[in-house]
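STRUCTURE:
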């Protein structure tokens, strides 16, 4: 398994820091970030308590936008960057998922294992769709929803 420590932005992303030898390239050069946050933000996000979110009009814990000083709640921030898109569930029990993760991904997993659990291909395809959707959302919403900076 590649990931062990929580990302500095874990409260937002639920990601873990990669311990892969190329982690600096994979995390955008920041060793404290997961791959996703390293690519999207390249820095640690600033969290604040009692933010009056201008998007959902609720007072919650929030995040300051990466390019300005506006803050919105974590849920709205996540929706802005990821869109409302749920991560697919792994199609097999937890022990099979853990074994699959130990291989390190589709390319490094033995064909015999994949033949035994063919729904992993569909799962990976759904994960790739999610990644593509995130990339689209990042391009569209990489600006603050209030000032567009």
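SEQUENCE:
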């Amino acid at each position: 398994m590649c990931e062990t420590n929580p990302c500095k932005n874990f409260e937002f992303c639920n990601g873990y820091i990669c311990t892969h030898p190329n982690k600096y390239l994979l995390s955008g050069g920041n060793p404290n970030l997961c791959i996703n946050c390293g690519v999207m933000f390249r820095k640690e996000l600033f969290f604040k308590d009692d933010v009056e979110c201008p998007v959902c009009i609720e007072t919650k814990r929030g995040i300051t936008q990466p390019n300005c000083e506006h803050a919105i709640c974590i849920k709205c921030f996540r929706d802005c960057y990821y869109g409302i898109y749920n991560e697919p569930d792994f199609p097999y029990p937890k022990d099979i998922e853990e074994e699959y993760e130990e291989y390190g991904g589709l390319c490094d997993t033995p064909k015999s294992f994949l033949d035994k659990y063919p729904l992993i291909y569909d799962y990976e395809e759904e994960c790739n769709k999610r990644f593509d959707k995130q990339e689209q959302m990042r391009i569209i919403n990489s600006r603050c929803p209030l000032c567009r900076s």
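REMARK: The beta strands are 3-6, 16-18, 47-52, 59-64, 71-73.
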